[in-house]
Amino acid sequence: MKIRVIDVTSLEPIMEACAKPYRSKPSEKLVKRVFEAGHRSVARHGMASFDVLGVSVNTLIQLSRHPFINLTVESARFCDMSENEYVLPPFIKLEDEGEYIADQNLIMRIYEKWANKEGYTKKENREISKLFLPRAIKINLTVSGNFQAWYEFLQLRNCVRAEWEIREMAGAISDILKFKVPAIFGNDFGCKGDEIGLCPESESCGKYMTIKDFKKNL
Hints:
By secondary structure, the chain is α+β, with helices and mostly antiparallel strands.
């Protein structure tokens, strides 16, 4: 997976928005104070866009669950996917790698068979063959969102309970935004638990007590 920054807007519109209610002096320090006070909507005035190259369809499906993250994806209908690679989960046992690769290759041979099957138009071949693409196939997409949307998305997907590939993507984008927009994504930015000191999940990784267990101990 490769992530390329397309654009990250300046902090200027957010500084102006934070200063507006009380006619304050616009500053990065004010943005940080307002955001940390819970007034998250001001972050919608900033936007970050990325090219994400070589991410699986499986992760694309997960990304689609976040309605405030905008997606534009290369078309499986108009693009030949026969040369596309597929993801290899990092926890696949060494002795099973060959079997995994062979099975993925088998699926892609089926894709190619239907992509070139006689008796259909080129358009029909593409529409049939794309239905055989495995969820592991790598695709390219452009993704964007305002800073509030990214903040909420990244907190969820930085969690160790998130699936490995989307967590890798979230970690890389988090590092970029920490550097480019420190007033919103500070050095301590991570999962939701890092912000509130409690784990909002049903089961904790052990880093923080769950909110449910905390309430039991009150």
